[in-house]
Amino acid sequence: MESTDSSTGSHHQPQLPPGFRFHPTDEELVVHYLKKRVASVPLPVSIIAEVDLYKFDPWELPAKATFGEQEWYFFSPRDRKYPNGARPNRAATSGYWKATGTDKPVLTAGGTLKVGVKKALVFYGGKPPKGVKTNWIMHEYRLVDNKTNNKPPGCDLANKKSLRDLQEE
Fold first, then answer.
1. In CA terms, which of 1, 78, 127, 158 is 20 to 30 Å from 118?
2. What's the rounded Cα separation, in Å, for the pair 4 and 91?
3. Which portions of the chain have biased composition (kind: Basic and acidic residues) (predicted)?
4. Measured between alpha carbons, how far is 163 from 28 in angstroms, rounded to an integer?
C-alpha cells in the first residue's frame, strides 16, 4: 500500500540494522518469504505480519503491519466464497477487492521455472456491481504447484497462505 499521509504506518518496527531497506523482487517474495512461510521454515527476517486482510478496510491495515511506511506486506489466508469452490472471497468491511489485469507469472532469476503468480487487485467501496473504485491496490502472490518442489503428499501449498503487498496510489 502506498500512502501520501506520512502519519500512517506501523507502531511496532522490528530491530533492523541501520540502512536496512525492504524492497524485495517478486521472486524474492515468493521464494524467500511465502514458500518458507508455507513450509514452516524460519524467515530471513520477521517483518511480514499475518493478518486476515478481508476483515479490514485498506486504510486500517497500515496500523496492523510489522514494517513499512509507504508499502506494507502481509501474509493472509485465502478465503473461499463457497466451501467446495475455488472462487476466492474478496469482500472486505465496506467494499471488496476486484481483480484487474492478467495474472503475471513469477519466474526464477534464470526465467526457467515458474514459482508463483502475481495478481493485481483494486479496492472498490460499496457492493458489486455498483462499487466505487478507490486508489488502493493490492498485489497477491500465490505459489504454483511444481512437481519438483518436494512437498509432502496432500499438502496444497497454493491454497494455504498467500502474500499480499498493499499500496495506495
1. 127
2. 25
3. 158-169
4. 12
List C-alpha distances in Å: 135 to 99, 108, 119, 123: 14, 30, 16, 7
Give the three cell numbers for residue 139. 498485489
Identify whether 11 is part of a domain: no
Residue 42 has pLDDT above 50, yes or no: yes
Tell me which amino acid residue 4 is: T
Cα gap 116→104, rounded to integer Å: 9
Q: What's the rounded mean pLDDT across residues 18-34?
A: 87
Residue 96, H or E segment:
strand 95-107
Q: What is the DSSP string of 67-79?
A: S-SS-EEEEE---
Residue in the structure block whose three cell numbers are 501520501: 4
User: How far, CA to CA in Å, does 23 sit from each of 10, 28, 70?
Assistant: 17, 9, 11
Q: What is the mean pLDDT of residues 24-38?
A: 92
* pLDDT band with cut points at 50, 70 and 90 for residue 103: very high
From 20, 107, 92, select the one nearest 58 (Cα to Cα).
92
What percent of the chain has pLDDT above 90? 48
Residue range(s) defining the domain that contains residue 137: 26-150+157-168
Dihedral pair phi/psi, residue 144, rounded to 5°: -110, 160
